[in-house]
Structures are given as structure tokens and as C-alpha cells.
Amino acid sequence: MTDTELTFTDKHGGLLVITPSPLKRMLAYRQLSWFSTEAAGVLIGERRGPHLVVHRISEPGPGDIRHRCFVDRRGAHHQTAVDEAFISSSGMLQYLGEWHTHPEDSPSPSSTDLGTWQRHLIAGHEKMVLLIVGRKEIWAAKKDARIITPLLEA
């Protein structure tokens, strides 16, 4: 699964494409042992009309709070990664959304996830991406305004 891209689709034919490099990095944080803590970061990529392509991620680091079933992405390095990608790409690469892990095979958002996304992830005129990396599967959704719509693996 890590040598190729992973693609999801919405009900309108819009695609979410996760390129191999960020996919491999996220999968490296899967919670495969009982002492693994949740990990989180941001998704960085480009918007191609209705399609979103993830080219980079930020990874856990200093300032983040990580526990078995909780993560709080607080480190300033996440925003730095977005800023540097935006500048180095002349604005092509930008913040697309959030990713984090769950210690379950087939993840789904918790009530904490849903509440946090509704309060803190502002999806105005741009759709935002939400990913949860489980031990065996990845859950993906788009947030459009206040509506969170799960995506299907293509």
C-alpha cells in the first residue's frame, strides 16, 4: 500500500489522492503495539478543482501531547511546515486538513474528534480533509462548511 498512491472519492466524483511519500509517513505512526501513542499532523497539498492531492504532511514533534487514546497537535512546527511548503511552491501547496491515528483496525471518528473538527477546523469556501489512520485501514472525509462527509476508497 505504500509504494502507490491511495485514492478516495466523494459522491460528486471529487477525488482525494494521497501520494506515496505522505502515505508511507502516516502509516509509520500506526498504533501496532499496546504502548503506541496517537500521532497527529497536518495535510499539505494542492487543490485541483474538486480534487485534492496530498503531497506532504507534518509529523508529531515538540509541543504535541500524545497518549494511547488522545492526541493534541500543539507544536509550532506544524504551522512552520505549512508556511514553508506554501512559500517554496509559490502558493501551490497549502494546508488541506488534519490527520491522526487511532488504536483500532478500522478507525472511525470519536465524539471528541467530531466536536474538535466542528469547533476548530474552519472550512469556509474550501473543503478540508480529515484522515484517521488505523492499524489496517484509513478513514477519510471532507468537511464542507459544517458538513463532514466520509469518502470511499476508490
Automatic annotation (TrEMBL):
Domain JAB: 22-135
Pfam families: Prok-JAB (PF14464)
Name of protein: Mov34/MPN/PAD-1 family protein
Upper lineage: Bacteria, Pseudomonadati, Pseudomonadota, Gammaproteobacteria, Pseudomonadales
This protein's record includes keyword Hydrolase: yes
Organism expressing this protein natively: Pseudomonas synxantha
Keyword list, A-Z: Hydrolase, Metal-binding, Metalloprotease, Protease, Zinc
Gene3D superfamilies on file: Cytidine Deaminase, domain 2
